[in-house]
Specification:
- The complex is a heterodimer of chains A (about 100) and B (about 160).
- Chain A has one domain: Helix Hairpins, CATH 1.10.287.3510.
- The N and C termini of chain A lie far apart (about 55 Å).
- Chain A is mainly alpha-helical and about 100 residues long.
- Chain A is built from three helices and no strands.
- With about 160 residues, chain B is mainly alpha-helical.
- The longest helix of chain B is centred in the middle third of the chain and has 25 residues.
- Chain B folds into two domains: about 80 residues, Four Helix Bundle (Hemerythrin (Met), subunit A) (Up-down Bundle); about 45 residues.
- The model of chain B has no long low-confidence stretch (mean pLDDT about 85).
- Chain B is built from six helices and no strands.
- The chains are: A mainly alpha (about 100), B mainly alpha (about 160).
- At the A-B interface, helix 1, helix 2 and helix 3 of A face helix 1, helix 2, helix 3, helix 4 and helix 5 of B.
């Protein structure tokens, strides 16, 4: 538990799982959950490097900013998804390709 | 003892994250995301980041997860808890992500990080507060304006044309 590598291992695993969710899921909300996992992985890295760099609190500030950005992103993304559902009656992101035509 | 707890928490985090991306029922995914977020908060406690752990639980579990569940409920014709959806190309995606993970892990662990030992602080709230109002005042203000804008935008977007 006292090594940087174990935290890096866990955060890279979370990042890869989140990326897997983003590229394989087709429900927009499930994609959003993958993005949340990726942001969590980034946050673990920030806080871990902060601890192992002599308890430097700069990483904590960055983690806070990332959490706030994640909240804003979730709110806006869910508003957009609900709009898509109201207009097209689906949240499958493969069906929402109006801009490609 | 602390080692055992650490590995239990990290196993819980990673396994529930895998459940989030592999399960086909959306509501189950959301509940598994709850355990991932709690596990992440536990990891923050191990990293001596008590304030970040509290904020993680407040904002992620109390805010974002509730929003996600609202989103699931509002974008499906609810008949039961079993709101399913399909994934695509899991085989190819799994292979690519596996090699990407190997690459990422080797890159992160082979790198010669400079580790500086530190003593455990009494609490991080005081230090974070001082930093937020001195060195990071501008990012703090910008992020609060951005949050306000995002919340107003989300309210306007989801109200529709009425």
């Amino acid at each position: 538990m006292n090594s940087l590598d174990s935290y890096l291992f866990i955060s890279s695993m979370l990042f890869c799982l989140g990326l897997f969710g983003v590229i394989t899921r087709r429900n927009a909300i499930a994609v959003l959950m993958g993005v949340e996992l990726i942001l969590n992985a980034a946050n673990i890295n920030f806080v871990a490097f902060s601890k192992f760099n002599g308890m430097n609190l700069d990483g904590h500030i960055f983690a806070l900013l990332v959490i706030v950005l994640a909240a804003a992103e979730a709110a806006v993304a869910l508003a957009i998804i609900i709009n898509i559902y109201n207009n097209m009656n689906t949240v499958n992101i493969d069906d929402v390709s109006e801009l490609k035509r | 003892m602390a080692d055992i707890v650490f590995w239990i928490i990290s196993a819980l985090t990673v396994m529930s994250a895998a459940f989030v991306v592999l399960n086909n029922q959306l509501v189950y995914s959301a509940v598994a995301l709850l355990f991932t977020l709690f596990g992440t908060a536990g990891l923050y406690v191990f990293l001596w980041a008590d304030f970040i752990a509290g904020i993680q639980i407040l904002v992620y579990v109390g805010g974002i997860l509730v929003l996600v569940i609202f989103g699931i409920m509002l974008t499906n014709k609810i008949k039961s808890v079993r709101i399913s959806h399909k994934s695509m190309q899991q085989g190819v995606g799994g292979v690519v992500i596996f090699w990407f993970f190997i690459f990422l892990f080797l890159a992160l662990t082979k790198a010669p990080w400079v580790v500086t030992e530190a003593i455990e602080p009494v609490g991080t709230v005081r230090g974070i507060g001082i930093l937020l109002l001195t060195d990071y005042l501008l990012p703090f203000e910008i992020i609060s304006v951005l949050l306000l804008g995002a919340l107003i935008g989300a309210a306007v977007l989801s109200r529709g044309d009425s």
